[in-house]
């Protein structure tokens, strides 16, 4: 008596197809971005929690001062971009694994891509346009460290 095992679900990309192997590049990106993210995240945590007065020093003035420095702006933007693309790529992999219909897979991947793009744009705008002391505001609405004009 012989038992036949069904073939696994066919891959999304046929074996003989030419072109860019996005799965391979996605896999490589996940490994590389993971290593860089570990460095960025632990650097972020070390600076915020260990340097100076520690966690008790984190307030609006600390964040305002940090986001006024171009080094920390780019550090935070790089961390934001890598983390969101890393997470989006992981979600794309899960969608490919569990969404069985092509239409549902397309809708889910489009929604995930849209969410990642919106969050990247909004996060980048916040980091680069943050001003803790906006001009022409009443003095009672401004933080205490802002010069009164």
TrEMBL record:
Keyword set, alphabetical order: Heme, Iron, Membrane, Metal-binding, Transmembrane, Transmembrane helix
Protein origin, superkingdom: Bacteria
Location (main, coarse): membrane
Pfam families: Sdh_cyt
Record bears the keyword Heme: yes
Membrane-crossing residue ranges in chain numbering: 28-51, 71-89, 110-130
Keyword Disulfide bond carried by entry: no
Subcellular localization(s) per the UniProt record: Membrane
CDD domains to which the protein is assigned, alphabetical: SQR_TypeA_SdhD_like
Protein name in the entry: Succinate dehydrogenase hydrophobic membrane anchor subunit
Organism of this sequence: Luethyella okanaganae
